Amino acid sequence: MPTAALMHIRDLTQFLSELSENNNRAWFVMNKPRYDILRAEFLELVTGLIADISRFDPTVAGCNPKKALFRINRDMRFSADKRPYKTTFSAAITASGLKKPSQGGGPAYYFQIDASGMLLVAGGEYMPPADRLRAIRRHVIADASGFGKLLKNKRLIETFGSLREEGKLTRPPKGFDADAPHIEYIKMKSFIVWTERNVRDRIPTHLPKDLAAQFKDAYPLVSWLRQVAKPD
To answer: Is residue 5 a contact partner of residue 205, using CB atoms and an 8 Å limit?
Structure first.
């Protein structure tokens, strides 16, 4: 795979580390040539991943790799943090081609690498909009058996463990009974799994294969979420 030889992880983490210490426009402009090379390598990696994922999930075959990449510029409009740049390279591969939950992107295969070389690999939906979250919760009840099987999926559990409970409610959400099937999962605000590991010293040729394998293990969750009816 051509992407394997192109993604220089140490160069990427070195750039991000320096950026985290010099998070300003002047430094970034001076180092723009480095960024452009790394961005092109990352794009090649994502392009190859889309092809690899398409082998077990054909619905993502039309995902535009350029649109799958997140911009390095931060949205500072409503943030007290005025640092202009993110210190991660990240991408979300979806069937719709849309990255953000607020855009209706749906379940995604997501990964990011930060300045320390920490790789986060995730699958599912993180903090979907209220109408979408309500639809997912309803689907948990409507397909209680299927959701139960998903929770017991061996590959999913071995790679990611259980669904993440970040932001979980203490009480059932409005409109849901306390004795509803899988009520503890209905309380969750995200339906996502993820795992992290440091890849700073990882052999570059292994990264694309490893990512594709982990995303394949996340596919049962992504597939189940695609069955959720569109919000009312």
So the answer is: yes
Edge-first strand order for the sheet with 88-94 is 88-94, 108-114, 118-125, 191-198
Distances (CA, A) of 197 to 105, 122, 153, 160: 26, 12, 22, 12
114-151 pLDDT, tens digit each: 999 999 999 999 999 999 999 999 999 999 999 999 99
Instruction: Say how many Å lie between the first and final Cα of the chain, rounded.
Output: 43
The rounded mean pLDDT for the chain is: 91
- The letter for the amino acid at 121 is V
Question: Can you read off the two tokens belonging to residue 7?
Answer: 């993604």
Neighbours of 203 (CB within 10 A): 9
Mean pLDDT across 89-110: 84
Whether the Cβ atoms of residue 64 and residue 83 lie closer than 8 Å to each other: no
Nearest to 92 by CA among 117, 70, 62: 70
The model's pTM: 0.91
Q: Where are the alpha helices (DSSP H) in the chain?
A: 2-6, 9-21, 25-30, 32-54, 65-68, 130-142, 144-151, 154-160, 183-186, 207-226
What percentage of the chain reaches a pLDDT higher than 70? 92
